[in-house]
Amino acid sequence: MRRVLQRPEALALLDAAFSDQPVVLTLGGTIREMLAVAGRKPNHLYSLDAMGQTLAIGLGLALGLDGDRRHEKVVVVEGDGSLLMGFSGLATVGHLQPTKLVLVVLDNGVYLATGGQPTAAAGIDFAATARACGWAEARDVPSDFESLRESLGWARGAQGPILLRVKVGTEQPKTDYFLEDPVLLSRQFQDWLLRAEGTGASAV
Amino acid sequence: MSASSVERSQAVIEGLESIDPRHVLYLPSSTLKQVLAHFLPGGAGAGPERRVYPIPREEEGISILSGLALAGQRAVMIFQDNGVGNLLTSLLTFPRPYHLPIFGIVARRGGLGEYNSMIHTISERTEALLDAAGVRYFQLDSRTPVAEWAPTITKGHTFAHTTHQPVLVLVNLMGG
Fold first, then answer.
1. Does the distance separating the beta carbons of B70 and A189 come in below 8 Å?
2. A153: containing domain
């Protein structure tokens, strides 16, 4: 049987592909595993308990950074359970067309942080839903290292909004709780947004 | 004599224009019709520098406002108080603990003048819900001269930024 990517492996690829771009991370194991594979990063926004809100937070950020040449993309890392909790965001993104938005859905099919109860994702075609809502691009990515790396590289250069869904396994490496003060997380991320080096000619 | 709904709505518009929001998020509201018309295409407040868009649910709007606040954008969400219950989890798990100064105008329903037999059941508990949640709000109704409404909205927006927290201004456009 072919081995699927595990979430920490996918997160390491995400961090490498967007090491200089804002990345909004969904709650729970995703944050803890990103910290384990990449360490604390100033361009990562850790939404500690905002289940179902990650896409909409990233949408607001992408709209707010529209025209700001310091930031090419706004990357949102979602799980299938959290995306389903804020599913209307797919329609709002389609309506507003934030060209910098890249949504990566790491779909393990379960609520892993609460004991592995199944989500409703198994029968849902997220990519088709996004396309029906008017997203610029939406793809299912084969669950292997090269395919995800290639797709992330493509997404970096393509016009959004873009959705990538990749199936991941349910291995759960032991990680420490992340108990940082949210005020500090917010401030550090905003400071990074303001001082980040641009890739364009001028900053707004 | 208390100000009419038209006068109160105009005062809300003036208060919002003093903030000059780049993003105006809205949900449906018959009582806010005049305010929304000002910002929608064809209204005096519409323009290429301002994005005005519908939001399907209040909690999604709170999250979008949060992202906009992180990017340093001026923004406001306009909605009715019967949606306050929807947004509390969103408000208390992201912008409030992350100290983000988001701002909302909330139309009051219920009370004297209410014509809907259902809506008062949730709407008349708005202050109690917000108090229990520790959400800061200011009230504009018949107790406040209409001349004070726009300046209060301006100050409410400033207060959100000064105190690094979400702030709502509750406006009664129905006469109460």
1. yes
2. 7-193
Asked if the structure places residue A88 within a domain, the reply is yes
For A49, the closest chain B residue by CA position comes to B93
Count: domains in chain A: 1
For A52-65, how does the pLDDT look when each residue is reduced to its tens digit (9 = 90+)?
999 999 999 999 99
Is residue A110 one of the residues assigned to a domain? Answer: yes
Q: Which tokens hold the place of A193?
A: 């947004």
- The answer to whether the CB of A101 falls within 8 A of the CB of A61 is no
Distance, in Å, from the CA atom of A24 to the CA atom of A41, rounded to the nearest integer, reads 11
Q: CB–CB of B25/B55 below 8 Å?
A: yes
Domain B5-171 classification at class level: alpha beta
Q: Is the pLDDT of residue A187 over 90?
A: yes
Does this model's pTM top 0.80? My answer is yes
Mean pLDDT along residues B68-89: 97
- At A43, which CATH number? 3.40.50.970
* CB neighbour class for B143 (10 Å; exposed up to 12, middle 13-18, buried from 19): exposed
Backbone angles phi, psi at A99, to 5 degrees: -70, -20
Q: How far is B147 from chain A (nearest CA, A)?
A: 33
The alpha-helical segments, DSSP class H, found in chain A are 7-17, 29-38, 54-64, 80-85, 88-96, 126-132, 145-157, 182-195
Beta-bridged to residue A77, according to DSSP, are A25, A104
Reported ipTM: 0.96
Break chain B into its structural domains and give their ranges. Answer: 5-171
Question: Helix or strand or coil: residue A202?
Answer: coil
- What percent of chain A stands above pLDDT 90? 92
Give the gap in angstroms from C-alpha B53 to the nearest C-alpha of chain A.
8
Kindly report, residue by residue over A25-41, the tens digit of the pLDDT. 999 899 999 999 999 99
Residues of chain B found within 8 Å of residue A76, distances taken between Cβ atoms: none
